[in-house]
């Protein structure tokens, strides 16, 4: 399953942009579709659809304003936790950018960055996923990412430098002049790609107040966290819920809120993500109960009344009715048929 979430801390500067436009915070929280208390937690992940909804609102209200500049001015590298602390403790700007391109997936796994060390320049390319074709249409989101990259490089190095080249794959718009004034160069609009370049000396700019040894340790930790996250995120929500349910001694003991808590999401979020995958909690619980029933009967080690209890049924007759719905026959008849097939009857 393709990763479909991004870190909640990325919404913090976007909320700030919205507030500068006079958008009520309650409206932005409602647009995102998450409880504000959850968005304040640094470990919460939010579906990409929420990012699209919030950017659409920002552009509808302030599309003639330099939203990219407002976003850049609202971003502090350390606001994004581990990734930010890796950046501020790197030895130089080139290393910081290279590390960011590697571990950015901890924040946003669908947006890819690439650093190229050219003979006389350092180039950073932004590659948007085809699923996010809404972003170039809105113009400001990808523009904001590149302008924020320039602004963050200035913060990290303490140098008010300007890139030698910046390209946007969308047309010029009402706020383009203000964006160029902030960057200090004329941007190339309607380009074939999104990129920013600086001269080779920019890559060697030292990061102010960096603790190099700490940065190395944090980078190793970030790489390990990324590997672990990828192994977990590729599993669908259906699989994760079924795994939690199947691990219980007695099926039916966990309600949706219990499972949501174990998966570190709200019940509302869990139900929505299951709907996005075309399944329901009740349907998954029924599937787990069915699979366990077949396995218990196949093993032949437990009486039917005990199987009924372990599956969460009130009595054996309720188990028998459910089993007939699953298989078209009774538990006893199905067990006999299985024995005949195995030659053990």
What does this structure look like?
This protein is an alpha+beta fold and 345 residues long. It folds into two domains: 65-227, no CATH class; 237-342, Arc Repressor Mutant, subunit A (Orthogonal Bundle), CATH 1.10.10.60. The protein is built from 19 helices and six strands. It has helices at residues 11-20, 25-32, 36-39, 48-62, 67-74, 82-88, 93-103, 134-138, 140-157, 176-183, 200-203, 212-233, 237-246, 256-262, 267-276, 281-299, 304-310, 316-327, 331-342, and strands at residues 5-7, 45-47, 112-117, 121-127, 165-167, 194-199. Strands 3-4-6-5 form a four-stranded antiparallel β-sheet. Strand 3 and strand 4 form a beta hairpin. The longest helix has 22 residues, at 212-233. It starts with a strand and ends with a helix. The relative contact order is 0.10.
Into which percentage range does the β-strand content fall?
5-15%
- Number of structurally distinct domains: 2
Summarize the helix and strand pattern as letters. EHHHEHHHHEEHHEHEHHHHHHHHH
Helicity, as a percent range:
55-70%
Q: Number of helical runs? A: 19
If strands are numbered along the chain, what order do they take across the biggest sheet?
3-4-6-5
Which parts are unreliable, with pLDDT below 50 for 5 consecutive residues or more? none
Q: What gross morphology would you assign?
A: elongated
The biggest sheet amounts to: 4 strands, antiparallel
Radius of gyration: 26 Å
Structural class determined from secondary elements:
alpha+beta
- Tell how many strands the DSSP assignment holds: 6
The rounded distance between the terminal residues' Cα atoms is 43 Å
* Average pLDDT metric: 90
